[in-house]
Amino acid sequence: MATAEIVAMLLTWTPFLALGFAWNILISLVAMAIGTVLGAVLARLRLSSRKPLAHASLVVTELTRNIPTFVFLFYLAFLIPAELEVAGNLYAVPAWLKASLALSVAVIGFVSDNLLVALRHQQSRNHAAALLFIPSWTSYLVTIVMASSTASVIGVGEIVSRCNIVIAAVGGDETMLWVYTYAISYFLLFCFPLNWAMGYARRRLLARIGTATP
Amino acid sequence: MSRVKFCTACLLALMAIFAGREAFADRLDLIQKRGILIAGVKSDYPPFGMLDGNARLIGFEPDLAAEIARRLGVRLQLVAVSSTNRLQKLDEGAIDLVVATLADTPQRRQIATLVEPSYYASGATVVTSPHSRLSSWADLRGKKVCATQGAYFNRAMAQRFLLDLQVFNGTRDTGLALRDGRCVAWLYDDTGIVGVLGDPEWARFETPLPSMMVSPWAIALASTEQGSRFEHAVSEAIADWHRSGWLIESEQRWGIKPNHFLTDMRELWTRLQPDGSPLCARQSNDKWPVECRNKFLLSSADVDGMQRFGLLLKEQAGLDLAIIHDAYDRQLFLHGLWVTLQLMVACIAGSLAVGCLGALVAESGIPLLSGLVRISAALGRMTPPLLLIYLVFFGIGRIIVSRFGWTFDGAAIAIFCLSTYTGCAIVSALLDAVAVLKEQEAGFSLRRRNLSQALRLAYAPVVASLVNVVKATAMASVIGVPELVSAATAIVAEQGNPAVMMNVLMITYFLLVMAIVQIFNFLERRMLQSGNR
Fold this sequence. Notes:
Chain A is mainly alpha-helical. In chain A, 79% of the residues lie in helices and 4% in strands.
């Protein structure tokens, strides 16, 4: 395949693949939202003065850390029905939501651990250190966006699934190499600026902590 | 160990919540309430089910689904399904019926309602390159044969001819595996092969062996639809198609080579009894007469003692533990466990090797190379491992095969990709540790002798990365590595016991990850002790 041909092929399919990547981001944001809310509850409970409650919360956090999200994805795909009937109404449970739920398990553990540290800093009035949670959270979003590519294995129409559709439609031996490389560039372009910005934010915050407590 | 027990209890409670299901009494009510019939058809099986230029599903089978929707007076929605997920999607209620090249077998009758009469028939055959010189099925004994996951004959053919089956997801992956030389033949459906061999890329390939296990195709409904009005309506539609010859017209319309099955069925369903009434008419019990049913399925399946025990467990306790009572499944699962353990150990070792080597080179001060490694490590962390596996296995693997004729093992590629991804994370953890050490002692530089010092400081993030790679080994299943997830999904595809198998899979993985975390905790304690001494 000539270079011009490859570029033309990738350009033709760009809107299709870009929409797939938008799905990756949506799945990740929903996973972060669910995971953050539940993780925050766990972190708050771990600070509880009631020992059994704090202990149980720690155990649940450890449980979420031991669950492999890739396997959990299959688990939810097989075991959550596609349509739930609640009070006479049908509610669809789309595959992408199952992917978000599977990914959110990892987020719960992350938020529970990191927010706990932030809350402790907050209690000791170390606000800058507590703010370190924000760059950590955003970096974790990047990790989840990368993990969201696994949603393709349960048939979610995100970027990797769409790559396979493009490859099947275009055919040819070299197509795969270019389409997959192109998809990887989406992840790089999304992750690199975010990682860089968060690295910068972290350094600024650490500098503030350094000057506040000499 | 009370915490471990509590963990397990929490997990079991979670599973109990997800195991609950809800369903309508008769699917027909749901379909009419919705106004849409959702049918699962193939998208990669021309001309039975395929995508047209506008990515719409068309073919012989979508036409059948459309005809059923028209008869029910509802709109039609087509959903692409694969051999692996069609019965799963049906079972979970995502689709109302499956018209997707599904062969009628006694096993499948246990997990779905297969509507009679059948609408088509096919058998198993193999595709090989012209130089294979195969003359009989026995020539394939012990040879690597690629197969598509979920095909009804995989297991029986593997048992009957002692094939070393390499199971892949979907037609594309299996076809590529044959062309890449990962196996000597591709075990596939004789009807499916026609669509594949029509492609000029496959012109040199041939089907030298006679078809085996010829089997009728059935439209499938959920197992709960047995005897429902929905089943009745679909059954009536198919009977009418045989009587009117509509299926034969449809076959011609799609340019399919005429199948004897359809002409035989046409003759059977239009045959009259001596008194002038049709032979194939519903009896008083609403069943078709014995002459008009799939004969080989009428005889009861041969069950031995072990299988009877397993079925008893299934009937009495609702537990379909195929991996205990079924020797084939047990062996499949144990082999998967063994492969997963090997993958886990290899990925831990590989990640550490890549991480340490990368950090040493990055700190070596060699101009250009150090910078290159730093940039690669940063980029490597931002590449999704699943995409990396696809890129190396299909993208690069394909080009290497066509240029040099070398093929690589799927497991080796998975280990390479996962180790690279995790290794990049370890490089950055080690470099962070080195930065701290440099602040503590001026003139510190990372060398082989003080590598353990940096590793000790970076212990927590390094272990976190290693635990992540252990969890990620399941990704190897996407390229046909026969590990635990592959084994579990293959068993579910054969047995239709997702609830049991998925729970077994989750618990197994959970225990594996927990064991590895415990080992790392133990090593950390040992390290602290030796550090104190």
